[in-house]
Design a protein that fits this description.
By secondary structure, this protein is of the alpha/beta class. It has helices at about 20-25, 45-55, 70-80, 100-105, 125-135, 170-195; strands at about 5-15, 35-40, 60, 90, 110-115, 135-145, 155-160, 195-200, 200-205. The protein has 6 helices and 9 strands. It starts with 6 loop residues before the first strand and ends with a strand. One of its GO terms (molecular function) is phosphoribosylglycinamide formyltransferase activity.
C-alpha cells in the first residue's frame, strides 16, 4: 500500500507543549497522515520549542514585544508560518490572539482547543468557572479559530464528569487528558478525511 503524502502541521505554543508532544508522538506512526513541520512560540525559552528541537523539528519565536504595533507582529507571524506551507495550524496553548491578517491568510485552517464545553465558560478560567457554577459535566472543545475569543465553529467535544469533591487542579488534569486525546484524534481525521461546513456545523468527511 502506498501512503499519501503526509499533511503539514505548524504548531504554535507558549509553554511546556504537552499537546504538541501528543501530536509529535502520533506523527511517529506513518498511518497518522501528518507531520509537524515547524513549531512557533510567542516567547523565547519555551519547553515546547525544546521538545521540537530535540526531535529535529524547526522552531521559531515571534514575540509581540519586538514589534511597535500588534499588526506588525501579526504580519511577521503570518510570514513565518507561511514559509512552512502548512495544511493546518494548531494553536496548542498559544496565549496570543491571532490577528486578522493571519486568519485571512490561513482561513479555515487554524484550530484551537479549549478546556470547557463551549460556548459555556469561554476565556482563560474554564475549569474554575465550571466548578463555581456547579455544572455536573465539563470537558474540552476543539474548534476552528475566528477573530473572537473561543467563538469559532466547533469540530469536536468530549465530556468529562465533575465530582462533588473536585478541586480546580483535579478537574483540569482530567480535562487535559481528554483534550490531548481529542486533539490527536480529530487533527488526524481532519487531515486524512477532510471536512465540510454548513453554517456553523462541521462534518468530518
Amino acid at each position: 500500500m502506498t501512503l499519501s503524502p503526509r499533511k503539514r502541521l505548524v504548531v504554535l505554543v507558549s509553554g511546556s507543549g504537552t499537546n504538541l508532544q501528543a501530536l509529535m508522538d502520533a506523527c511517529e506512526n506513518p498511518t497518522y497522515g501528518c507531520e509537524v513541520v515547524a513549531v512557533g512560540a510567542d516567547r523565547a525559552g519555551t519547553y515546547g520549542c525544546e521538545r521540537a528541537e530535540n526531535a529535529g523539528i524547526p522552531t521559531f519565536v515571534c514575540s509581540v514585544k519586538d514589534y511597535a504595533e500588534r499588526a506588525d507582529w501579526d504580519r511577521a507571524l503570518t510570514a513565518l508560518v507561511k514559509e512552512y506551507q502548512p495544511d493546518l495550524i494548531v494553536s496548542a496553548g498559544f496565549l496570543k490572539l491571532l490577528g486578522q491578517e493571519f486568519l485571512s491568510e490561513f482561513d479555515g485552517r487554524v484550530v484551537n482547543t479549549h478546556n470547557s464545553l463551549l460556548p459555556a465558560f469561554a476565556g482563560i478560567n474554564g475549569p474554575k468557572d465550571a466548578l463555581e457554577y456547579g455544572v455536573k459535566y465539563a470537558g474540552a472543545t476543539l474548534f476552528f479559530v475566528d477573530p473572537g475569543i473561543d467563538t469559532g465553529r466547533i469540530i469536536a467535544q468530549t465530556i468529562v464528569p465533575v465530582y462533588g469533591d473536585d478541586t480546580e487542579g483535579a478537574l483540569l488534569e482530567r480535562i487535559q487528558v481528554a483534550e490531548r486525546a481529542q486533539l490527536v484524534e480529530y487533527v488526524g481525521k481532519l487531515m486524512v478525511n477532510g471536512w465540510t461546513t454548513i453554517g456553523r456545523w462541521v462534518e468530518i468527511n
